[in-house]
What does this fold into?
Amino acid sequence: MNPGSEEWLRAMGRDAYAETTGLEVLRAEPGLAEVRMPVTPAILNGHGIVHGGALFTLADYASAIAANLIAGPVVAANASISYLRPIRRGFALARAKTVKSGRRVKVQMVEIYDDRGDLAAIFQGGAMPAADPARPPAPA
It folds into this structure.
């Protein structure tokens, strides 16, 4: 699916944060996604490595694509990440796969690699159906 296409916008909407962080969608299909993030000085932490929050953003976005393209729209219900090795230059590549796709819960596994192909992080995320946009939110 082509980001920016009408089909894409129905499934994913426009994600200004993903655009701001420079995420590039390489593959997008139901249950699968690949997203690349260039390493720039803006995402390095004080130790000169990619900030954990930037890697989390990358994984979360890849996870969202994999889940939303199945039957979207869904939103994150939970997530965890394990950082295995630092990334200092080049790019980070997230490969997301939906491993469970039920009516109420979708579970994605995301592996993040550095530009040498070494595994740098593992992310697991759960998604649930988004609220019906036609229905107003419940009163607080």
